[in-house]
Design a protein that fits this description.
single chain; 261 residues; alpha+beta; five-stranded mixed β-sheet; disordered C terminus
Length: 261
């Protein structure tokens, strides 16, 4: 009985295998048809674009950037320029971190005139005024130069009013373009009056010899802590002088500025 059952089961398994095997047995001609169908469809497809017809346009916003190594001379010139700019910024910003009084001027005067600037009031109560007198000279080697003579006055209110300096007198501690052009004879008169009066001080600075366009500077006081300095440049201009100068007074002790006369 067991042998009969095993035989029947074996026959059933063989039959099932043949049945399902026949379902998935695809004839060779069907595979050929599928292959030809794929080739036909592939041949019908066209490329998305023709490479030969593509026009390549240059991007107008893209530019070639080249870098050239600067020469040693150019680097040195740039360093000098930066150094001078730093010096100028330091001078201009001094009132921000030091107790200074200053007068900065850029003015044009004739050859027979003097530039009068300053007029600020110090903590001692006097007014300081500078007279800058340029003059064309010829040096021993025949070169043309400019001789600059500077005289400083420290005078009281009465002297200011008696000698026509009241238009320059100010309680503003740091001024710009606060200056006048005076004739030579007027300067000589005021300087002589200050020298012969009591309570007023006249200080004659050393004469400076410069070329047109050259800078000048001098100061009074300690080398590391000058109480007074004058610096600037001077240029010839059509028979006249173009002067840029900055007068600076460093206060030793800060005292509130007077409110007026």
């Amino acid at each position: 009985m067991n042998r009969v059952v095993i035989a029947v089961a074996t026959l059933l398994m063989i039959g099932v295998g043949l049945y399902f095997g026949g379902m998935f047995d695809i004839p060779e001609k069907d595979l050929s048809y599928l292959n030809s169908y794929r080739e036909e469809k592939r041949a019908q497809k066209e490329p998305a674009f023709d490479i030969e017809q593509v026009e390549v346009k240059e991007n107008p916003f893209r530019q070639a950037v080249t870098f050239e190594q600067p020469s040693i001379t150019e680097v040195d010139a740039l360093r000098d320029e930066l150094r001078e700019t730093s010096k100028k910024l330091t001078r201009i910003s001094r009132p921000l971190y030091e107790d200074v009084i200053s007068s900065a001027v850029r003015a044009e005067i004739q050859e027979s005139e003097s530039l009068v600037q300053g007029g600020y009031r110090t903590s001692e109560g006097n007014y300081e005024i500078a007279f800058l007198t340029p003059k064309n000279v010829v040096t021993e080697d025949g070169a043309e130069a400019i001789e600059l003579e500077t005289k400083m006055l420290s005078v009281g209110s009465e002297f200011v009013g008696d000698n026509g300096l009241d238009t320059l007198a100010t309680n503003v501690r740091n001024t710009l373009q606060h200056a006048e052009a005076w004739a030579g004879e007027e300067v000589s008169r005021v300087v002589a009056s200050a020298a012969n009066s009591v309570g007023n001080e006249l200080v004659a600075m050393p004469k400076v010899l410069v070329n047109s366009g050259q800078e000048f500077s001098f100061s009074m006081g300690e080398p590391d802590f000058p109480t007074f300095s004058l610096e600037g440049s001077i240029n010839r201009k059509d028979g006249a002088f173009l002067i840029e100068s900055r007068l600076v007074r460093v206060e030793q002790n800060q005292v509130p500025a007077p409110t007026g006369e």
